[in-house]
Write a structure and sequence with these properties.
Layout: E1 24-25, H1 65-73, H2 91-103, H3 105-110, H4 114-122, H5 134-158, H6 164-184, H7 193-208, H8 212-221, E2 225-226, E3 232-234, E4 239-241, E5 247-252, E6 259-265, E7 268-276, E8 281-296, E9 302-316, E10 319-326, E11 332-338, E12 343-344, E13 351-357, E14 363-368, E15 378-382
Parallel strand pairs: 3-15
Antiparallel strand pairs: 1-12, 2-5, 3-4, 5-6, 6-7, 7-8, 8-9, 9-10, 10-11, 11-13, 13-14, 14-15
Helix pairs in contact: 1-6, 2-6, 5-6, 5-7, 6-7
Length: 383
């Protein structure tokens, strides 16, 4: 995972398990957790970090290329009408159909026409969910994908990789390609969704966020951060649980010192308010709508069914430590995520989650121990 297991101390200095302090909520001193960001153009120290500062706690401590690929690439399996068993995904037909449509984009677009394609996928002129496929294209592919490109490039640079932007671009390309394959699944035929995503919005996002002025605006003005879930595999059932890429934005309210407008989004969108304490801790509350199911608008295009949702959040300096989400008619009626750094027993501080099914008769729990960089996923139990 993102952080390797620290070296063990000697028996003379390390307390036994019986002597370890009880499980407790820890609130480290803010000064010990801040990572100063260098100004643009600084020649001393590491390069400017807009979206990744190496914080060892919260959602930022779980940043990892493979985790991003899992969260983004398998995010559609959150929907109620998609089976989250990994062996249910038709990778073969999904890849074959995505490849076919990418090789013949004009043929796929002309099935319903160029105007229908631009109206649904590109031009933001309709507020009807059946004709607003452009919304996730702008929020998740252009802005979210572009921000993720910068964040992953910074992660690679932070961990000493050469050509970090190349690695960042390859990571984002793998994530989005997997997303299209999984979304396509066993469908065979023309579809314009991968054309809009992979040929227009994904490259545009990386180009857009290659400019420092754009990174500065979204990082410093909008405070855009990644608040993705903690994916876990239920080995006994062969399912992926608690996966999905999410983002948050905070815009300070004029003439106030502590309040900000808050927006939380992914396969959902909730708006609300944030109260920030002087030490950098922040509490947010938001309500909105969550995508429940992916539905067919036509044979070539899909839309989503929306249901009301509500969330509570606690973060420190932008790194999420706790979230509680409710959506009555969704697969997970309620979901709680506790990120590393909030609960601690000695040096042990896992990530945890628990989810309640909409019928109140199934519960899923999971733990992320961050045992190694090559295991960016937790273990889930239940159902």
């Amino acid at each position: 995972m993102a952080l390797a297991l620290p070296a063990l101390a000697s028996a003379d200095t390390e307390p036994s398990l019986a002597q370890a302090p009880p499980l407790a909520v820890t609130m480290p001193a803010a000064d010990s957790l801040r990572f100063p960001l260098l100004p643009v153009g600084s020649e001393a120290g590491p390069p400017t970090r807009w979206f990744y500062a190496g914080r060892p706690y919260g959602s930022e401590s779980l940043t990892h290329p493979l985790r991003m690929i899992l969260n983004g690439g398998l995010g559609i399996l959150q929907f109620d009408n998609r089976d989250n068993h990994l062996n249910s995904i038709d990778f073969h037909d999904g890849w074959r159909n995505v490849r076919s449509n990418l090789a013949n984009p004009v043929r796929a677009i002309e099935v319903e026409g160029w105007w229908a394609f631009f109206q649904r996928e590109v031009i933001p002129i309709s507020f009807n969910t059946d004709n607003a496929q452009y919304w996730p294209n702008y929020t998740l592919h252009l802005i979210g994908g572009g921000m993720s490109y910068t964040m992953m490039s910074e992660w690679y640079a932070y961990h000493g990789y050469e050509r970090p932007h190349l690695w960042g671009g390859l990571t984002i390309a793998a994530y989005h390609l997997l997303n299209e394959v999984v979304e396509n699944d066993d469908y065979v035929g023309p579809t314009t969704d991968p054309i809009a995503d992979l040929y227009l919005f994904d490259p545009a996002g990386m180009i857009l966020f290659s400019h420092e002025g754009v990174n500065e605006f979204f990082s410093r003005k909008l405070h855009l951060v990644d608040w993705s879930y903690q994916p876990a595999v239920n080995i006994a059932r062969g399912t992926i649980e608690n996966q999905g890429q999410n983002f948050s934005i905070k815009v300070p309210v004029p003439r106030t010192k502590r309040l900000s407008l808050f927006y939380y989004f992914g396969t959902h969108g909730e708006g609300g308010l944030t109260y920030t304490k002087p030490n950098g801790s922040a509490f947010s509350v938001a309500g909105g709508f969550r995508a429940k199911e992916l539905v067919n608008v036509t044979d070539q295009t899909k839309s989503v069914e929306l249901v009301p949702s509500f969330g509570l959040f606690y973060d420190r300096e932008g790194s999420l430590l706790f979230s509680a989400l409710w959506s009555h008619k969704s697969r997970y009626k309620g979901r709680v995520n506790v990120y590393p750094g909030l609960l601690r027993r000695g040096r042990f501080s896992p990530g945890l989650f628990a989810a309640l099914g909409r019928d109140n008769d199934d519960v899923v729990v999971g733990v992320d121990l961050r045992l190694a960089d090559f295991i960016p996923v937790g273990v889930a139990f239940g159902r």
